[in-house]
Specification:
CATH topology of the largest domain: Rossmann fold
Number of helices: 15
Strand order of the largest sheet: 3-2-1-4-5-6
Largest sheet: 6 strands, parallel
CATH architecture of the largest domain: 3-Layer(aba) Sandwich
């Protein structure tokens, strides 16, 4: 497969890194000489300096042989034009563009993209993805991460193991005996900044971060066995009045949540704009680092402070200040990966990395076989994916034990005819099964091959 990536920022760089690890032929285009030099020195990809919408540069990138173009520059217009030129001049099959300006995505212009229109097959809206991610964390109190699959019938949940966790030091193989009716599979553990797929004899320790797969209807019960029984947030203070805030409020309202929302926005014009756009919530113009403003929105009695400005430092400091003043929990938006390892020790309960959600959505389109969902963990150290079993793939008709999944990969759940199945060694993979797999990066390509068409069935 050959992929052209337009934009070498954080998102473009991480997409290129993931795909290069999977031996995909990648070319990256960016007008910044510094970013092109960085990507050339650190990744095994071709890197070209210039404008992504330049036909001559796309020709130098061998766009005529490309299977996909992924446009993630800072300019929506450049992203759209690059996709249009890729289709018109080079007949590139799949065109993906990141679009930030919500005017382009308004329902009024719903028919703007598609065949014989603006040639974008997949539109990625980072702000919407981030808002959805925060909403999921708010609805599952105590979770660090909540990732839905198969129309939210399966969830992968990340939790922090604290001292009062009742199953600390319990071998994982005993969890089935202790909770026979609970459909749950431990997928991965992060311990001392190292991620690994545990074995049945392993056990959890204090300060571990654990990812598990569960039937979505059993999420609350599952998270409770880890000692997390926090109440769902009803009083929420949001710092930052941009698109993320607006989409988050829409998510809360659309899902019928009984909430009291107050939003702090520094820019008066933006504050007035947001106040006119939302049907619920109070917008206050002020500084999220001003204690008087925080008192005005009653942060001392807030269940959760959500900090989603464009400044990581403001997000971290406003969350910490709010917690010191009495807010129960804090969620912060963090763009710079250098801050990620510090969040827990600083006192931030949950952080959201926008590039992780964007990259996951894009990489899903690159995977071979019938991949119906994908999420990247820790900047690509592991992937969670849902693959469909179909005639001609390697696993059909085999038991889990006989399928011989590679080391570092584990099957966490199956969805069969709407029924959640906890996998066992004698579970047989049947046609149309949806299989959730957790895999470290080094094993992803082998898992992908297992769910791709065998040569004899081409």
């Amino acid at each position: 497969m050959k992929v052209i990536i337009c934009g070498a920022g954080l998102v473009g760089y991480n997409i290129a890194r993931y795909l290069a690890m999977q031996q995909v032929d990648v070319t990256v285009i960016d007008r910044s000489a510094e970013l092109i030099r960085k990507i050339s020195e650190s990744l095994d990809v071709q890197a070209l300096q210039g404008y992504a919408s330049d036909p001559e540069l796309l020709d130098r990138a061998n766009a005529a042989q490309a299977d996909m173009i992924i446009a993630v520059t800072q300019s929506d217009e450049v992203n759209m034009i690059a996709c249009q030129i890729a289709r018109t001049l080079f007949n590139v099959k799949t065109k993906i563009a990141r679009i930030r300006n919500q005017s382009y995505l308004s329902p009024t212009w719903a028919d703007m993209f598609g065949q014989d229109k603006v040639a974008v097959d997949v539109v990625i809206s980072p702000e919407k993805e981030v808002a959805h991610a925060i909403y999921r964390r708010l609805t599952v109190p105590g979770a660090l991460d909540v990732i839905p699959f198969v129309n939210d019938k399966i969830r992968v949940v990340g939790v922090h193991v604290e001292e009062d966790c009742p199953i600390i030091n319990t071998p994982l193989k005993q969890l089935t005996e202790l909770f026979p009716e609970l459909p749950l599979t431990i997928l991965g553990i992060i311990r001392d900044e190292q991620l690994f797929v545990p074995r049945s004899g392993d056990h959890m320790r204090v300060d571990d971060v654990v990812y598990f797969a569960v039937d979505s209807s059993q999420t609350a019960r599952a998270i409770s066995i880890f000692g997390h029984e926090e109440k769902e947030a009803h009083r929420i203070v949001i710092v930052g009045g941009g698109n993320v805030s607006r989409f988050l409020v829409e998510d809360l309202i659309d899902n019928g949540k009984d909430i009291d929302v107050k939003i702090i926005e520094y820019d008066r014009e933006q504050a007035e704009k947001l106040a006119s756009e939302i049907d619920s919530g109070i917008v206050v113009c002020g500084d999220g680092l001003d204690q008087e403003i925080l008192k005005e929105v009653s942060v001392q009695s807030a269940d959760t402070i959500v900090s989603v400005t464009n400044d990581d430092e403001v997000n971290i400091l406003s969350a910490l200040l709010a917690k010191r003043m009495g807010a129960a929990h804090a969620i912060s938006l963090i763009n710079n990966p250098i801050f990620s390892p510090l969040m827990g020790s600083l006192g931030i309960d949950v952080y959201v990395d926008p590039k992780e959600t964007t990259v996951s959505t894009i990489v899903e389109r690159v995977r071979r076989g019938r991949i119906h969902g994908l999420h990247s963990i820790r900047n690509g150290e592991a992937e969670i994916m849902v693959a469909e079993v179909y005639e001609g793939c390697d696993v059909v008709g085999k038991t889990l034990g006989d399928a011989r999944f590679p080391k570092g990969a584990i099957v966490g759940a199956l969805m069969r005819k709407g029924e959640f199945i906890t996998p066992r060694q004698d579970t047989i993979f049947e046609l149309n099964d949806m299989v959730l797999i957790f895999s470290i990066a080094q094993s992803v390509s082998k898992v992908e091959e297992m769910f791709s068409l065998r040569v004899g069935h081409l």
